[in-house]
Amino acid sequence: ISFLCDACGAKGDQAPYVCLQCDFMVHRGCTALPRVIHINRHDHRVSYTYPLGRPGEWKCGVCWEDIDWSCGAYLCSTCPNYALHSGCATRYHVWDRIELYGVPEEVEDTEPFKVNQDGTIAHFLHHGADLSLNKDGIALEKGILCGACVRPIGSHTFYSCSYTSFVLHETCANLPKKKRHFLSPKPLSLRYPNVSYVRSNI
């Protein structure tokens, strides 16, 4: 039998589960779709929703193809326009295989620094002293490297410590401590190289 699965929106050609009263048909595999998951393409949890709901041009956050709004899909409650095909969201390299329904969501602190009242920052990489932002366009010598990317600071805007030679590109200083990436089903943690810094007049 050929049919369109109401749970995932994909076609099927094997015997489906059917509710004749509701004209509802689903793949056998779709009966076990997880309800709440975390994927490596998005920072928030996504929940299975049937039907997706409001009509419109829905694009899948994994394959970027259209999603049939009358079928089931995964939706982010924080980002209301972010949705995924059920099949795309549950791919092996996208989902970490952990069902999160009923599991309280822990809000992780991914901010790399705290801003002080005087405008300096307390960065998680540099303990014991605060960093000041330099926007004067001063070009530092080539030997002075960013403590994060280990590339020359050059004429880029940077943060510096008044007690040591430690400096950070402004861009590098703003990198979150944790990030989800499509190459890994698990979140990645930011790790900086272990470098010793000496006192300096920068």
Automatic annotation (TrEMBL):
Residues 2-30, 40-89, 125-173 form the DC1 domain. It holds the Pfam family C1_2. Keywords: Repeat. InterPro entries: C1-like_sf (IPR046349), DC1 (IPR004146), Vacuole_Formation_Reg (IPR053192). PANTHER family: CHP-RICH ZINC FINGER PROTEIN-LIKE-RELATED, CYSTEINE/HISTIDINE-RICH C1 DOMAIN FAMILY PROTEIN. This is DC1 domain-containing protein. The lineage of its organism: Eukaryota, Viridiplantae, Streptophyta, Embryophyta, Tracheophyta.
